[in-house]
């Protein structure tokens, strides 16, 4: 849990099928070095003992959109033994922290996680990873979210591209949280927070992040709400990507989180959260996005 972000005027450029962007991407080809960008990641505590690097083939898991890829595998107990990510960005959205940002995960959650664990925390903005994670996969049904609102569905033993964005709503002076799976918006939690609230991240101006960096903790939770998971690529940028940009990125790709993958399948009419069913959660999304004309 923590604080805020700024839009760095990130320009996305489609070129030779790859999205070139400001920001930082990690592709886990044997270590935590970044593939591009100025951010860096490091193991904290004993986390390196619970992480393995190899290929999809050697791990015996499905390839990524038909191609072998490099993968990092994590297994509990991660807890305070986590991955500290430094973003080195300036504050945004008028706050003192990094409030607006995008996180992209190309990841696979194995069946074992669904069978034997309850939650998978995707990140934590706490300076010392001492409080609850800030977005989870709820392993009872694969829903994605926080604050008792879980949308979409992560399927076991399946590669997905998960995108999380935070954007400033100037009309209400609040922060909106959007969740995407494989290029499709599956959930909007609008007005969920305020500038410099729980989900804001430490900026380049802060020195109270425990890794001697500024940023957040990847795949971290203070109480062990973690599970086994495979991640092939991770991307951070300090602005919210648009729904069109995320749709164009589509599904996961072995070349990395900013390389377009399989084009999204249009959901059936009425299935607003993309979980394959038309139910009460879709009605909630419809009402949350409904605006009267003026």
* Overall average residue pLDDT: 84
What is the helical fraction, as a range of percent? under 10%
Task: Report the structural category.
Answer: mainly beta
- CATH topology-level name: Jelly Rolls
Number of strands: 20
Number of domains: 1
**What is the C-alpha radius of gyration, as a whole number of Å?**
18 Å
Shape: globular
State the order of secondary-structure elements, H for helix, E for strand: EEEEEEEHEEEHEEEEEEEEEEHH
Distance between the termini: 37 Å
Number of helices: 4
Could you name the ranges where pLDDT drops below 50 across 5 or more consecutive residues?
1-18
Strand content: 25-35%
The main pleated sheet reads as: 9 strands, antiparallel
- Name the CATH architecture: Sandwich
CATH class term: Mainly Beta
